[in-house]
Design goal:
- Helices cover 30% and strands 30% of the residues.
- It has five helices and ten strands, in the order E-E-H-E-H-H-E-E-H-E-H-E-E-E-E.
- An eight-stranded mixed sheet has the order 5-4-3-6-1-7-10-9.
- The longest helix has 15 residues.
- The chain is globular.
Length: 194
Amino acid sequence: MNKIKMLNRISIDGYFASLNEASSGMEWFIHDPEVDKAAHAIGGKMNTLILGGTTYRLFERSWVPMLHNPDAPSHLREIAQELTDMTKIVFSKTINGTEWDNTQIYNDKLIEVVQQLKRDASSDILVLGSGSIVQQLAKEGLIDEYIFIVSPVVAGKGKPLFEHVRQFALTPVEARTFESGNIVLHYHFYGMGN
């Protein structure tokens, strides 16, 4: 059976996005290409991506134009191509259609669709951002691995990654620190708490 792997940037106090929608909610992230490479290597090669509507819109606005921008840095164009080539499974009640290749949109049945993907996908499956999706899948114990990029920032407020989730345990696999102050943490799901 395929694994669901979650990758998210978080602040030290557990927020995955700020409340500032105008900035895409990520103005406090400390970007570092070495951190991105390390997180990508931990996740491994995957060809299916699960996204919520907010994260999908942000990705579509950011990465689709990058594909066709000859002035964009080559590593960003490579990421844009990789995301375009992936099968994107989007859960949204407000997105009805898209021009981005390889996108499938569902307006409900998250748990059933994800369980089917775990059985039938041709590789492990990645969840990026998408806090509400992470919370729903975590609540059901469906995420097998958690990869966090922890930025050395106390955000103070924002969108918590694990709001309304019951306790569950993780087994540490790896922790790596970087000169930028970021830390990459990798955990396997251990089991649900009481």
